[in-house]
């Protein structure tokens, strides 16, 4: 279960944990519906976590967070690109779909 993996022990009584579980569950199923490979699914979940941490821990504005997303996804589709932020396992079409989803 995803709630066990995320170490959420109070999903039934904690609104915060319930919202976070919904956030990650929705993202997981969205990626599964697009037939992401295991590594792509893992990268997408890392990206969801990265964006959430930017909002929560770093208190970034939505605009700044979108800039960080752009930096993380820059270079996708370019052969041997070091700019892709280790997300080069996504195709350009998948990257566009991710941006649309987010």
TrEMBL record:
<dbReference type="InterPro" id="IPR032727">
    <property type="entry name" value="CLAMP"/>
</dbReference>
<dbReference type="Pfam" id="PF14769">
    <property type="entry name" value="CLAMP"/>
</dbReference>
<protein>
    <submittedName>
        <fullName>CBCO1 protein</fullName>
    </submittedName>
</protein>
């Amino acid at each position: 279960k995803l709630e066990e993996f995320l170490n959420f022990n109070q999903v039934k009584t904690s609104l915060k944990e319930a919202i976070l579980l919904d956030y990650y569950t929705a993202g997981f199923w969205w990626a599964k519906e697009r037939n992401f490979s295991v590594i792509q699914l893992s990268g997408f979940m890392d990206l969801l976590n990265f964006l959430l941490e930017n909002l929560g821990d770093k208190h970034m504005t939505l605009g700044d967070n979108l800039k960080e997303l752009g930096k993380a996804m820059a270079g996708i589709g370019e052969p041997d690109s070091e700019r892709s932020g280790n997300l080069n396992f996504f195709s350009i079409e998948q990257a566009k779909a991710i941006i649309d989803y987010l």
